[in-house]
Amino acid sequence: MRRAGQSHAGKLALGLLLSACSQTATRPAGQSSPAGSAAASGSAGTLAAVSGAAGVGITSAGTAGGGIASGNPAEPNPDGGSASGRGAAGSDGAAAGRPAARDGSPPGRGAAGTDGGRAAAGPSGSAGTQPTAAGQAGGPAASPGSPATAAVGCEGLDPLQTLRGLAPTDPDLAEDFMGYLSDLGPLTCAAAGTGTARTITQTIFVPPNSVYDGRGEKLTADSAMLRCDTSEGEQAEDQRPYFVLAKGATLKNVTITYPGCEGVHMLGDNVLDNVRWEDVGEDAASVRSYFPGGRITILNSEAHKAKDKTFQFNAPCDVRIERFTGSDMGKLVRQNGGEEFELKIDLNTVQVTGVISAVVQSDSPRCFIRHHALSYMFQGSGDKSDRVFRDIPPANVTEY
Ligand code: ADA
Ligand code: CA
Asked: How many CB atoms within 10 Å of residue 278?
């Protein structure tokens, strides 16, 4: 891997040594190209070992149980066997008489498409200009400007009722959100993990502003109960997530194993800290179009084997990914295709290898990227430098 700060010769020598298309996003100051004119890439497939990934790894401290309150009976989702749209991606039914949802729709709903609901929305708590150095330094769960809100525990809490309270005001998005909720199935509310390896049969709901500390636990989804796609590519759109994080919730010290299913759904203003995806499913974590979005902070984490995208954003967000390692992935970050809402992304000390398609891909003229100590290695041969920040205006990319 080449890193910022190495001499060009040093980079080149190391790059040749690695015999692969490792490139850093370093460029001379003032140059607007996202990745500079990186050297042509080398041989296909073989990846150099990743070194120096700071802060990753799960600490297995603690074995205390408790903290898990089942808000719902542990039984299969009654609508789990519904005929509509299971399995294959995009196999939804008839669209309602309006533009369809912009992201993976619940079964029976419209196919993915565009809707204007979000595209015209303003930025997430920021001026619509290029982010500044200070602009994305995020604190944990709470986002600046949001009222100081106390953590909500699971006791007496109805997850679906809580989620309904977060419905968007836009009627179309609200309808999509309600469809999402009805398809989500039963949820287990939990504000703490177990520190053990266990199989989950329901999506875990982390209440608003709570910190779910898995204490090093290793979770495996029951693929029938979470409707995980275990076919090649794992891209079915109606898989259930391991976690739904309410607004302001934090998830930490958790490993998500195979099958990855829909990973983690983040309502907004969330922190993921020391989360490890061993084998990403449809995606590792996402903000859906009908979620509030906001500040998303992903720290000390790693993700592997994402056939398509790792982190997917379908609503305006201010994203910070710091001390992250990933391997074998289509994209590290994908802004939902065809969307033009504002998305700010800060990549700080990020190392990805085996990238197939892009480090970040967006069709939005308002996708702004800041990066520091970013290194990447594509699969295959050929110069992939135009794919580092794919389809993103070079002027929107700043190295710091
Ligand atoms: C696919 C799909 C989108 C959206 C996205 C996601 O890219 O085409 O509509 O569902 O997945 O959010 O995972
Ligand atoms: Ca998804």
From this structure: 15
Cis peptide before 259 (omega within 30 of 0): yes
A 10 A CB-CB count for 102 gives 28
User: Could you give the 3-state DSSP secondary structure of residue 253?
Assistant: strand
Higher pLDDT, 10 or 156: 156
Q: How far is ligand 2, taken at its centre, from the CA of residue 379, in Å?
A: 23
Closest atom of ligand 1 to 286 CA is: 12
Q: How far apart, in whole angstroms, are the C-alpha atoms of residue 149 and residue 136?
A: 21
This model's pTM is above 0.90: no
Closest CA to 288 of 360, 209, 181: 181
**Rounded to the nearest 5 degrees, what angle is found at the Cα of 252, between the Cα atoms of 285 and 186?**
60
- Mean pLDDT to the nearest integer, 275-289: 98
* 41 or 266, greater pLDDT: 266
Distance between Cα 251 and ligand 2 center (Å):
18
Q: What pLDDT sits at residue 389?
A: 98
Q: Which atom of ligand 1 is nearest the CA belonging to 262?
A: 13
Beta-bridge partners for 371: 347, 399
Q: Which residue has the higher pLDDT, 354 or 72?
A: 354
Confidence of residue 235 (pLDDT cuts 50, 70, 90): confident
Ramachandran region, residue 2 (left: φ > 0; alpha: ψ -120 to 50; beta: rest):
beta
| Residues at CB less than 6 angstroms from ligand 1 | 103-104, 112, 237, 282-283, 286, 312, 314, 336
